[in-house]
Amino acid sequence: xxxxxxxxxxxxxxxxxxxxxxxxxxxxxxxxxxxxxxxxxxxxxxxxxxxxxxxxxxxxxxxxxxxxxxxxxxxxxxxxxxxxxxxxxxxxxxxxxxxxxxxxxxxxxxxxxxxxxxxxxxxxxxxxxxxxxxxxxxxxxxxxxxxxxxxxxxxxxxxxxxxxxxxxxxxxxxxxxxxxxxxxxxxxxxxxxxxxxxxxxxxxxxxxxxxxxxxxxxxxxxxxxxxxxxxxxxxxxxxxxxxxxxxxxxxxxxxxxxxxxxxxxxxxxxxxxxxxxxxxxxxxxxxxxxxxxxxxxxxxxxxxxxxxxxxxxxxxxxxxxxxx
Length: 324
Description:
It is a single chain. Strands 17-20-19-18 form a four-stranded mixed beta sheet, with helices on one face. Strands 1-2 form a two-stranded antiparallel sheet. Strands 3-4 form a two-stranded antiparallel sheet. The protein has helices at about 5-15, 205-220, 225-230, 290-300, 300-310, 310-324; strands at about 50, 55, 60, 70, 95-100, 100-105, 115, 120, 130, 130-135, 140, 145, 150, 160, 175-180, 185, 235-240, 255-260, 265-275, 280-285. About 25% of the residues are buried. It starts with a helix and ends with a helix. Helix 4 (about 290-300) packs antiparallel against helix 5. The protein is of the alpha+beta class. The radius of gyration is 43 Å and the shape is rod-shaped. It is about 20% helix and about 25% strand.
């Protein structure tokens, strides 16, 4: 018999006996007789007597409730049968070894359960995503998420649904990237956006945004009356000169430099980029002044034009006129 069980049994009997040889327990040792009842309500499994709140087993039986037969098991091997891989933890510290078999502990939350031969498994210690067990898209089995259909990943937080990656042309990520967990990863650096359809440096980008940049920056052009409605999808930053515009080598995202004519045939300059999903336009706050000289001449006559011309050129014209 296991030495520990012998010591416990002997100690219980010894403490229960008074100096007069009776089996009455001292008040300080009195225990609830229900401590001796098994799951079927039997005292000491019907194989012993309850003394001082503990079972005194009949010969051939051991265990806290006399539930184990010495004919069926070797008591010195009881704990060994409850250790996984010859480890030191009995029932993985999540249960009790009863007759060489692990009985797993009950949790306060009845939905949380220990399981397995050594109580090594549970259904509540899996990876989480969004503070949800298995991301809310799977179940926890032996501390590993078993994901629902169309989900994968250690926390079932990766969707296999590609519908969110479909571009307007029906292709996955516009044929310019791969769909990972329902999100496009653009493989061509020139393309951006949720479906890799935005290309800030592709031909046509400058002319495509000309009218909106013009109405936002100068309140002119064909869209000046509908500017707020049609042209509010980008962030506008004004700079003083062309040298103040962003340069491609200063940034790790694609950038287009644009030079377009406005309604007065004046050049204006801006850059177009998409950074972190936000369209961004830097524009020189005033159009090219060369066209303003021509415009002034048209409105104010030759005298005005002369005032805008280079002084040396004016002197040359004056000398020529006197010679005539």
